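hi! just following up on the protien thing from before. the input was this:
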Amino acid sequence: MFKKANTVPVPKNLGAVTQIDSKAETSPYDVSMTRDKVEAIWNSVESFYRTGLQPGMTMVVRRQGEIVLKRSIGHARGNPPPLHPDQDVDQVLMTPDTPICLFSASKAITAMLVHKLQEQGKLDLNDTIGKYIPEFACNGKEGITIAHVLSHRAGVPQIPISNPHPSLLFKWDSVIDLINAGYTKRGDGSQQAYHAIVGGYILGELVQRITGESIQANLQKYIAKPLNAKYLTYGLNPEHHDSAAYNYSTGALPVFPINILAKRALNIDFEKIASISNSTDFLNASIPAGNIYGTADEVSRFYQMMLDGGQYNGKQLFEAETIKLATKPAGGLSIDQTLMIPIRFSTGFMLGENLFSLFGVKARKAYGHLGLINIVTWADPARDISVAFLNTGKSLDPRSLPALGKILVSVSSNCGVLK
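and the predicted 3d structure came back as:
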């Protein structure tokens, strides 16, 4: 199922490629933790780094609103695996404040822009998409609602074109025209099938038509600026391009059937994604489902705001009822017909489970989102934690998931449930 491995060089002394923001990290004893528990979490990150599958990683963990871990390891760029084309880039260490592409973890943030419009009375989640985008209401799509799109039940999981060129992602109007003209036999919300790209464009077009402003402007107005974020933008402003972490395709290259499943979800060959994401066109584009850039601290800040009932630093970004609605289950646990794994969604978020999930063990109350295989961002009200684990290795290597699972289990185990 996999071809030859493709990993980055890993130094024996990890301290040489590790940065700790000690000024930001508070004493774990102040938030019902211990130093050993924090270090146990970081040890699991180091274990992942030693696989050579992750050129660079950053992590921030907030507990009871305080940062207990804010660190980075590896390189932001310039330490590629041997099979990656970017071989002539100067080495730059990853820092805790390096902006990294969130890929699909962007979806949760984009979803909250739609929930903001509901909060303002400008739409209802049970409205059809066709009410705001009349061209969409055809070919079986007439009954698709906003809630269907947010919960991956719209029945249009792929751009309706065979083997699209990657540059299509940068052509907003062309993508919208293709989606509007597409057909579906599942437009009644009956089937859950993860919408990797399409849902984001639909929601982005919806926001723009209702507000008369770009999705980028809405993100800045309602989320990024109130959170005092330097980034949290779709793509990056040109002045920040040189700060962006590069993504690299690492590890064993997938072959049948893994490569087919990946392409079905993403519309693009998996091994091409990393190179595409490093391009200027990608950095200049707005892809609502997949190219928000932010630091781990900024993303953790977003989830802390969610935990705090929509408040941040004395400002009310969202009403508490909006947060509850956005994180309320939209259906039961079911096998997703795109991802082919059991998972629950709310109208915007992936949800945790009792035994094991994307957010560790006994994390039924947790909500967040995965980003292109290894990025995981979430909040867990039972533990009062907001976590962002960002990374740049895009890998389907069989060693990757166990290493990631070890981190998730470590976070949930070492951040105990609060009574």
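The first helix runs from residue 35 to 49.
The first strand starts at residue 18 and ends at 20.
cheers
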